[in-house]
Amino acid sequence: MTPNDFKSGMRRLAAGVSLVTVATAEGRHGLIATAVTSLSAEPPSLLICVNASASIHEHLRGAPAFCVNVLSRSQQPVAERFAQPHDRNTRFELGDWTELETGAPALRGAQVSFDCRPAQTVSFGTHTIFIGEVVAVTDWSSPADPLLYHEGRFQALPRSEPA
């Protein structure tokens, strides 16, 4: 099996799109991530997997807090902007941003924003698993209308009639 075989298989797994953000002395940084999941309800925690070569990696490693913004369908332009390395300097010009209790940047209108303090990191292969203890949850959006990533592109669930 090759890394490309693995990547091809993973393209079949639909995943929610999250925007991981952090503020440091150098400024705000963000990364589009699909490798985000809940870890525990006691204590409330999430894990995110970040490639060590990602520009945000070292900022996350040294930050006192980070935010996981679960994106909505309407935020696809924000996701596209953050997915492009050449747009790094203008990423935060798109969207309505605020600062959470920890100082982490949060995107208003996201499905939900999880304000996290780093709890632990684990290195594995090319990635680092960042475990964040969730200190606050902000539900920005109702009803749920998540942005997904599948087959190498952003997608959304079909709209359904209210129950």
Task: Please describe what this structure looks like.
- The chain is mostly beta strands.
- Helices cover 13% and strands 45% of the residues.
- It has helices at residues 3-10, 57-62, 76-83; strands spanning 15-16, 18-24, 27-33, 36-41, 44-51, 66-70, 97-99, 105-107, 112-124, 127-138, 147-150, 153-156.
- The strands form three sheets. A seven-stranded antiparallel β-sheet has the order 3-2-6-9-10-5-4.
- Strand 9 and strand 10 (127-138) form a beta hairpin.
- The termini are far apart.
- 31% of the residues are buried.
Key words describing this protein structure:
163 residues; seven-stranded antiparallel sheet; three-stranded antiparallel sheet; mainly beta
Strand order of the largest sheet: 3-2-6-9-10-5-4
Mean residue pLDDT: 91
Question: Strand percentage, roughly?
Answer: over 45%
The whole-angstrom Rg is 15 Å
- Helix/strand/pairing category: mainly beta
Distance between the termini: 45 Å
Q: Please tally the helical runs, counting DSSP H or I stretches of 4 or more residues.
A: 3
Most strands sheet: 7 strands, antiparallel
What's the helix-strand series?
HEEEEEHEHEEEEEE
Q: What oligomeric state best describes the polypeptide chains here?
A: single chain
In short:
The chain has three helices and twelve strands.
Blueprint of the fold:
Blueprint: H1 3-10, E1 15-16, E2 18-24, E3 27-33, E4 36-41, E5 44-51, H2 57-62, E6 66-70, H3 76-83, E7 97-99, E8 105-107, E9 112-124, E10 127-138, E11 147-150, E12 153-156
Antiparallel strand pairs: 1-11, 2-3, 2-6, 4-5, 5-10, 6-9, 7-8, 9-10, 11-12
